């Protein structure tokens, strides 16, 4: 094995020298492969299908251009994500607007920019949407977000479909939902298109998705019996990825097939008339394609631990602090050595909890070596925060031995730009 790790043919030392550290590095081929894998596998003879990239996982103009090239739709949850998608040249009618508390400013901005697809999360939002669209002569397509009340086995903070979830209208509020659908269907400027559900994130069990499909189809049957057709069903995202060797995610082709076969079976069993099935993968498109490079700084020994400090931490990756998320890493400049050094990888933020990896065996290292943390491509950059006024790292894409800058490293000038003097 070579001493210096290469990502898509580019030595990490070169990347660190050219762009500085910390640095988010994405393997562009891997991003493309993931998109293609969804496009090719999420197809079924009984349905039309659509894959929406959940851009909250990683949104910037460069990434969304790639999504445009790969011909996926995009789901956005804020004016910022929406503006990013538009800036990247994504067609307004390929953008779907999510969110449990879209502000009037956001709704109006979306309408102004000809966004057609909206997910409505609650009753009041439906009223707000009607009020906004009535000021124009436009027409909107609306899908309703239902909380199917299925608890998937994932961290409590990333579960989204338990009974007290803030997202969607509970599937148990059937009468309320029917009244709402009726009011949407009869509105002159709204086309009611169907239902949406999302059961959580980083889900490993096929059974959870099958249960979601069954629950939604049986609900749609009930609606159809009352005369409300639901031609579209969006089942959300949540497909798990590999962070450490403990993780065994369902391969994309299998997850796609499982979901679509379950839909086809339910369509027969429940005698429903669903035409389109949609999914919204985020993490599984970008997660494993991204890694973070850090420069190793000081280290210290305490009675029970040996700390390795890096030049980033909870500002560029909040996930270990927030969800006890686990990561794998290597000393990327000592790859030919054995991983026999037990350390705790900690960041530079003023917070005891600023630990990226509580315990890991790494190659022997010294100050100035580079550390690579794998699978940071989802919800790393997108959850960056300026705690301690740390500067946001650059993002680069690498492919075939070449790197290109996607997001510039934040400068002190950028940092201070908004401060009123
Ligand atoms: N669709 C909806 C409606 C969602 O709420 C989400 C994620 C997705 C799709 C995409 O899910 P994915 O395929 O990425 O699992 N910050 C957390 C994850 C929060 C996910 C929120 N919703 C984390 O770092 O794990």
Structure in words:
The chain is α/β, with parallel strands linked by helices. It has two domains: 6-25 and 289-416, Lyase, Ornithine Decarboxylase, Chain A, domain 1; 42-283, Alanine racemase (TIM Barrel). The protein contains twelve helices and 20 strands. It has helices at 12-19, 28-41, 61-69, 79-87, 104-112, 123-134, 174-185, 206-225, 252-270, 283-286, 319-323, 412-416, and strands at 6-7, 10-11, 23-27, 48-54, 73-76, 95-97, 117-120, 140-147, 169-170, 190-196, 232-234, 276-279, 290-301, 306-310, 329-331, 341-346, 355-362, 370-373, 394-399, 402-407. The strands form three sheets. Strands 3, 13, 14, 15, 16, 17, 18, 19 and 20 form a nine-stranded mixed β-sheet that branches. A hairpin with an 8-residue loop joins strand 16 and strand 17. Helix 2 (28-41) runs parallel beside helix 9 and helix 5 (104-112) crosses helix 6 (123-134). It is globular, with a radius of gyration of 23 Å. The relative contact order is 0.16.
């Amino acid at each position: 094995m070579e001493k210096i790790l290469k990502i898509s043919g580019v030595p990490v030392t070169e990347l660190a020298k050219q762009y500085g550290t910390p640095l988010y590095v994405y393997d562009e081929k891997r991003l493309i492969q993931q998109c293609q894998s969804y496009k090719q596998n999420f197809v079924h003879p009984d349905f039309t299908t659509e894959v929406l990239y959940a851009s909250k996982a990683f949104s910037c103009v460069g990434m969304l251009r790639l999504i445009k090239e790969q011909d996926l739709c995009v789901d956005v949850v804020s004016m910022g994500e929406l503006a990013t998608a538009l800036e990247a040249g994504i067609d307004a009618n390929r953008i779907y607007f999510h969110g449990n508390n879209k502000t009037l400013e956001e709704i109006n901005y979306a309408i102004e920019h000809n966004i057609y697809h909206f997910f409505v999360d609650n009753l009041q939002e439906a009223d707000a949407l009607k009020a906004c669209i009535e000021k124009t002569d436009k027409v909107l397509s609306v899908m309703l977000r239902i909380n199917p009340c299925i608890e998937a086995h994932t961290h409590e903070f990333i579960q989204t479909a338990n009974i007290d979830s803030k997202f969607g209208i509970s599937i148990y509020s059937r009468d309320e939902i029917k009244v709402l659908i009726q009011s949407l269907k009869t509105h002159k400027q709204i086309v009611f298109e169907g239902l949406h559900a999302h059961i959580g994130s980083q889900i490993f069990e096929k059974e959870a998705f099958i249960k979601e499909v069954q629950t939604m189809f049986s609900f749609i049957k009930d609606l159809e019996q009352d005369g409300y057709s639901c031609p579209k069903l969006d089942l959300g995202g949540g497909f798990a990825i590999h962070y450490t060797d403990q993780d065994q995610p369902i391969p994309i082709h299998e997850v796609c097939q499982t979901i679509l076969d379950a839909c086809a079976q339910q369509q027969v069993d429940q005698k429903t008339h669903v035409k389109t099935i949609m999914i919204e993968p985020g993490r599984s498109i970008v997660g494993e394609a991204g890694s973070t490079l850090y420069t190793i700084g000081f280290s210290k020994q305490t009675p029970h631990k040996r700390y390795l400090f890096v030049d980033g931490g909870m500002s560029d990756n909040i996930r270990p602090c927030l969800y006890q998320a686990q990561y794998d890493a290597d000393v990327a400049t000592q790859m030919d050595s054995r991983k026999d050094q037990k350390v705790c990888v900690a960041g530079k933020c003023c917070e005891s909890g600023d630990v990226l990896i509580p315990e890991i065996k790494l190659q022997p290292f010294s100050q100035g070596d580079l550390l690579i943390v794998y699978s940071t491509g989802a919800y790393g950059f997108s959850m960056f925060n300026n705690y301690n006024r740390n500067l946001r790292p650059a993002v680069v894409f690498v492919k075939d031995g070449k790197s290109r800058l996607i997001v510039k490293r934040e400068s002190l000038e950028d940092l201070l730009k908004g401060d009123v003097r």
